[in-house]
Amino acid sequence: MASASTPTPTPTGNERIARRFPEEVASEGNIGLIDEICAEDVLDHSPLGEVRGRDDLKAQISGLRESFSDFSATVEDAITEGDTVAMRVTLRGTHDGTFMDIEPTGKTVEVGNMLFTRIEDGMIAERWVQPDMLGMLTQLGAVEPPEP
């Protein structure tokens, strides 16, 4: 007996706004979109440091894309609860620029990332970005893999 597949729902409301950051800003490099979808005093928490404001966020994302020129962020799952959207994202890229004082290795990395985005008045007000930094640094050869 063949099973019918359930179509993936089209994101609406807060999820649609939140998804634009990984899909269009991070993956496509549309840094200018930050002005359209982020609050002026947007607050971003990540292992790279906490930044506040559109200009600092643009600089952080631009730096990431300079370190991984083919950087992409693929949204795998998203769940919305009130004003917050939780997303499971896969990050990929080739390390061809300095990243966290690590000289370019030419290695391709792929890591999981948990991204929580708070929407306020139709704009991204706050983001919490939690990539698998140990996995990334291990793939770059900057740290030894953990013992099994």
Explain briefly what this protein structure is.
The protein is of the alpha+beta class. 26% of the residues lie in helices and 36% in strands.
Task: Chart the SSEs and their pairings.
Elements: H1 13-26, H2 34-37, E1 38-45, E2 51-52, H3 54-67, E3 72-81, E4 84-94, E5 108-120, E6 123-131, H4 133-139
Parallel strand pairs: 1-6
Antiparallel strand pairs: 1-2, 3-4, 4-5, 5-6
What does this protein structure show overall?
It is a single chain. With 148 residues, the protein is an alpha+beta fold. It has one domain: Nuclear Transport Factor 2, Chain: A, CATH 3.10.450. It is 26% helix and 36% strand. A 6-stranded mixed beta sheet has the order 2-1-6-5-4-3. A hairpin with a 2-residue loop joins strand 3 and strand 4. The N and C termini lie far apart (42 Å). It holds the Pfam family SnoaL.
- Tell me the series of helices and strands, N- to C-terminal: HHEEHEEEEH
Shape: globular
Rg, rounded, reads 16 Å
For the report, how would you describe the main beta sheet? 6 strands, mixed
**CATH top level assignment:** Alpha Beta
Q: How many β strands by DSSP?
A: 6
Keywords, separated by commas or semicolons:
148 residues; Ester cyclase; 6-stranded mixed beta sheet; Nuclear Transport Factor 2, Chain: A; alpha+beta
